UniProtKB/TrEMBL annotation:
<dbReference type="GO" id="GO:0005737">
    <property type="term" value="C:cytoplasm"/>
</dbReference>
<dbReference type="InterPro" id="IPR016064">
    <property type="entry name" value="NAD/diacylglycerol_kinase_sf"/>
</dbReference>
<dbReference type="GO" id="GO:0051287">
    <property type="term" value="F:NAD binding"/>
</dbReference>
<keyword id="KW-0547">Nucleotide-binding</keyword>
<dbReference type="GO" id="GO:0003951">
    <property type="term" value="F:NAD+ kinase activity"/>
</dbReference>
<feature type="binding site">
    <location>
        <begin position="118"/>
        <end position="119"/>
    </location>
    <ligand>
        <name>NAD(+)</name>
    </ligand>
</feature>
<dbReference type="InterPro" id="IPR017437">
    <property type="entry name" value="ATP-NAD_kinase_PpnK-typ_C"/>
</dbReference>
<dbReference type="GO" id="GO:0019674">
    <property type="term" value="P:NAD+ metabolic process"/>
</dbReference>
<dbReference type="InterPro" id="IPR017438">
    <property type="entry name" value="ATP-NAD_kinase_N"/>
</dbReference>
<feature type="binding site">
    <location>
        <begin position="157"/>
        <end position="162"/>
    </location>
    <ligand>
        <name>NAD(+)</name>
    </ligand>
</feature>
<dbReference type="GO" id="GO:0046872">
    <property type="term" value="F:metal ion binding"/>
</dbReference>
<keyword id="KW-0808">Transferase</keyword>
<keyword id="KW-0963">Cytoplasm</keyword>
<keyword id="KW-0418">Kinase</keyword>
<feature type="binding site">
    <location>
        <begin position="45"/>
        <end position="46"/>
    </location>
    <ligand>
        <name>NAD(+)</name>
    </ligand>
</feature>
<comment type="similarity">
    <text>Belongs to the NAD kinase family.</text>
</comment>
<feature type="binding site">
    <location>
        <position position="154"/>
    </location>
    <ligand>
        <name>NAD(+)</name>
    </ligand>
</feature>
Length: 257
């Protein structure tokens, strides 16, 4: 089996990384950073997101496993204290593969799409951002405020949750639209609540100018200068998580608070 390790840049995670390499290589596994079959992410959810984007070019050929040494580990299945159990399971068991869809984001002035496991956000901290929202090509509402967040089921527990969005149960493939610090007054009203929609919807955001706004997708961001339209839909690309033991979604949720 070919594998690689993506680790958080701290001493604790580095020590776990070295133990993993020593144990797996002594068991005949091959460390292959270019073309791994299993990517072991050591850290927290941020480390796993980094690993997903590092291997986005071959996402259908890679499985991911998370070991928690950080502050938040919703995507991780083991803690550093359970490292020996984790390595035993990896070497002795066949994993169950759980797939989570990626959100696809296209800008009208860039032919190359962006992808997000958790969410995409349009954020403007310089001035109020005005944008029109279309769902399946039909005008839905005009938003005024700091921005908008479109999350996946996986991302419902992340930034979306801090906006008062709903946590979506595991196995439901949905998107959720939530405004960021929306401006509501007598001259302008928008929905004012998160909107949960089917996975086959597509959402378009249009504005006369996004020049002072940025597009955030997972932990990454790009400026939106000269962009007029942003198109989002669930893609057919999926992140594959290798589950070597049962770890319930409710247990993951309870770890958040």
């Amino acid at each position: 089996m070919k594998y690689s390790v993506v680790a958080k840049k701290d001493a604790k995670s580095h020590a776990v990384e070295e133990k993993i390499k020593e144990r797996l290589q002594s068991s005949g596994w091959i460390y292959d950073k270019a073309e791994p079959q299993l990517v072991i992410c050591v850290g927290g959810d941020g480390t796993l997101l980094y690993g997903v984007h590092q291997y986005l070019h071959r996402i259908s050929e890679v499985n991911f496993l998370g070991i928690h040494t950080g502050t938040l580990g919703f995507f991780t299945d083991y803690t550093e204290e359970e490292l020996e159990e984790c390595l035993h399971d990896v070497l002795e068991k066949e994993p169950v593969i759980f797939e989570s869809g990626l959100l696809k984001i296209k800008l009208d002035n860039n032919p190359n799409p962006y992808y997000a496991l958790n969410e995409m956000r349009v954020e403007n901290i310089v001035k109020s951002q005005i944008m029109d929202i279309y769902v399946d090509g039909e005008f839905f509402e005009t938003c005024r405020g700091s921005g908008i967040c479109l999350s996946t089921q996986a991302g419902s527990t992340a930034y979306n949750r801090s906006l008062g969005g709903a946590v979506i149960d595991c196995g439901l493939s949905l998107m959720q639209l939530a405004e960021i610090t929306a401006i509501q007054h007598s001259k302008h009203r928008s929905l004012g609540n998160p909107y949960i929609m089917m996975e086959n919807r597509h959402v378009t955001m249009k504005s006369e100018t996004f020049d002072t706004a940025i597009l955030c997708y997972d932990h990454l961001n790009v400026p939106l200068e000269a962009t007029k339209e942003i198109y989002c839909e669930m893609s057919n690309r999926k992140v594959r998580f290798a589950r070597y033991r049962h770890y319930s979604y409710l247990r993951r949720l309870k770890n958040l608070y």
